[in-house]
Design a protein that fits this description.
By secondary structure, the protein is an alpha/beta fold. It folds into 3 domains: 117 residues, OB fold (Dihydrolipoamide Acetyltransferase, E2P), CATH 2.40.50; 264 residues, inorganic pyrophosphatase (n-terminal core) (Alpha-Beta Complex); 109 residues, Diaminopimelate Epimerase, Chain A, domain 1 (Roll). It is built from 20 helices and 19 strands. Helix 4 packs across helix 8, helix 9 packs across helix 10 and helix 11 packs across helix 12. The longest helix has 34 residues. It is globular. It starts with a strand and ends with a strand.
Length: 569
């Protein structure tokens, strides 16, 4: 797939000013300025993430009300239910809050509840509230959900159940009748950092409770590895408090991990220290798989396990669920690609809407993302769910798929989501009409540029720049994530040394030179562009710089994302 290369820039004056205090390579200074780290103080904080930089939890609107209500429950010996969503953010948040409350309150008066993805759906459920009522619960702490559940929380209030909401989703104009709503995205919430995940908001409540109970300041830090997993999985910006919490959460995960993290690390085959990519690509999918394929409460059981052996039992279950998820994902993706390629109209469309009644509902969102890797355009994957059709949408950079679905709302029974991802339900009789309408809406509003994936290149360098000190500073920019991605570099006008080759039919093992400097690397799934290297003409490459550790020997290598025929800069 052809990609657009966009080379980012930064103000020269700011780079020069920063260079007065930081004696590092100009390319890295340029990246820091692009990321708004343009003073010595900001750079010092960025390169030395400290827990002392975290904001006081009491700055969050309603924190005093939330703490007072929980402490009142303690004093009155009330039953408390910790309620959370079935994904990574929700299950880690529940595990943290449940574990903390069991330490500081009567364990027999605390329980947790994860709604079943298919029987109850996302967020606060009537079944969960009815369960709480039957148990004599009078306080529910909801995590990663609740902000949209106006009617259900009113229903709970009518049953004598109070809610404390810990959420991070954008609130609507009408808020639920909860005792306290902790959500930094409320327009009148003064909390300085707005991008916490659901587990992060729960962590702030734990921190405030620990202060009020006069516990050690280290007490909330027991949950940093679970919180880091939630932040990594929920794709929230890796800046500010999120980056500090992940930095220290990874340290805990490697030095004194939660038994569940330790068991998943063993099963995932991570031989050394966990890095952010391990959380995103190895730990998180296994946790998510529980809710996708079966029951998300298994993930909570994993994280609250009291022994390594108990954790291993639950980790095996999640590992099995993830194997099933990968198999379903692979099969459905192959079926969907065949449907598109065998339909000339669909193959030439500006959107994708595919439907098969037997596809597993738990993986249609993943499949939509996979299809975008092949056909870069807004994509919806639909399947049968009881009497209705349910689906997930994913989008491409710059296109608001939620708004496009909103314009088809008369054909839908329900829908929700945000700019890049959404879900919907519809009647089976409306599938064809919905496909036609969605294509009309997308065609009328998407620009040709949006249908070509863009690579944002942070800086142009030469192969001679790529030395160990250069790489060491990049490593100190970790953990990477949205708004602090691993830097993407471009080298212009390199040539094949004669030793580059295709491996496993899909990948390129690179050996390139620039002047008298030779560098090796790997490029996954770009073998179709190998012909650009074979005529001896210069090429441009886009890559990340990595360290290859093989047989206890380390050397720098390029991880190449794209190549093109050389174009003068």
């Amino acid at each position: 797939m052809q990609k657009r290369w966009n080379i980012l820039s930064a103000e020269d004056a700011k780079i020069t000013a920063l260079q007065q205090n930081l004696n590092i390579h100009p390319a890295i200074l340029q990246i820091l300025v692009q990321r708004r780290i343009d003073t010595y103080e900001k750079a010092k904080d960025f390169f030395n993430p400290s827990l002392s930089q975290l904001h006081s939890p009491w700055l969050m609107k309603d924190m005093d009300k939330a703490v007072d209500r929980v402490l009142t429950a303690f004093n009155n010996r009330e039953r408390i239910l910790v309620f959370g969503d079935y994904d990574v953010d929700g299950t880690t948040a529940v595990a943290c809050m449940f574990s903390f409350l069991k330490k500081v309150y009567e364990p027999s008066n605390v329980e947790y509840y994860i709604p079943h993805r298919y029987r109850e759906g996302y967020g606060v459920s009537k079944a969960g509230i009815d369960h709480a009522h039957a148990q004599g619960t009078t306080l529910i702490i909801s995590l990663d959900c609740g902000i949209k559940s106006v009617d259900l929380i009113a229903y709970a209030k009518g049953l004598g159940i109070d809610f404390v909401i810990c959420d991070h989703h954008t609130p609507d104009a009408i808020l639920p009748p909860a005792v306290a709503i902790l959500n930094p995205k409320q327009t009148d919430c003064p909390y300085p950092f707005k991008e916490l995940c659901g587990c992060g908001v729960g962590f702030k409540l734990i921190t405030a409770l620990a202060e009020k109970l006069e516990l050690s300041s280290s007490a909330p830090m027991d949950y940093l590895d679970l919180l880091a997993t939630a932040i990594a999985a929920d794709i929230v910006p890796m800046v500010g408090e999120n980056r500090i919490l992940v930095y220290h959460g990874l340290k805990k995960a490697n030095e004194e991990p939660n038994f569940g993290i330790r068991a998943l690390k063993e099963l995932s085959g991570v031989p050394k220290d966990l890095l952010i990519n391990n959380l995103v690509f190895m730990i998180a999918p296994r946790v998510n798989a529980a809710g996708r394929m079966d029951d998300g409460s298994k993930a909570v059981q994993l994280f609250i396990s009291r022994t390594v052996d108990e954790a291993r039992q639950y980790a095996e279950m999640l590992h099995s669920d993830n194997t099933d998820r990968k198999e379903a994902d692979k099969n459905i993706t192959e079926e969907a690609l065949a449907i598109i390629s065998n339909d000339t109209t669909m193959a030439a469309s500006k959107s994708t809407v595919v439907f098969q009644p037997h596809w597993h509902k738990g993986v249609v969102g993943i499949v939509a993302s996979r299809l975008i890797d092949h056909y870069y355009r807004p994509t919806i994957v639909l399947t049968q769910s009881g009497e209705y059709i349910a689906g997930s949408a994913r989008s491409v950079a710059g296109f608001n798929v939620y708004e496009a679905i909103h314009q088809c709302r008369d054909l839908l029974l329900g829908y929700g989501g945000h700019f890049y991802a959404a879900g919907m339900t519809l009647d089976p009789s409306n599938v064809d009409a919905f496909r036609t309408r969605f294509e009309e809406v997308v065609s009328a509003s998407i620009t040709p540029e949006m249908l070509i994936p863009e690579i944002n290149i942070d800086a142009v360098v030469t192969l001679s720049d790529l030395k160990q000190p250069f790489f060491n500073i990049i490593r100190r920019m970790e953990p990477f994530g949205p708004e602090n991605m691993q830097p993407l570099f471009m080298v212009s006008g390199v040539t094949d040394s004669g030793y580059s080759r295709i491996v496993k039919d899909a990948h390129i093992r690179f050996s390139v030179k620039q002047g008298n400097i030779l560098f090796n690397g790997i490029g996954f799934n770009i073998a179709s562009k190998f012909h650009l290297m074979q005529n001896g003409e210069p090429i441009d490459i886009v890559f990340t710089l990595e360290e290859n550790d093989w047989n206890n020997e380390k050397h720098l290598q390029l991880k190449v994302l794209d190549i093109r025929q050389h174009l003068p800069l």
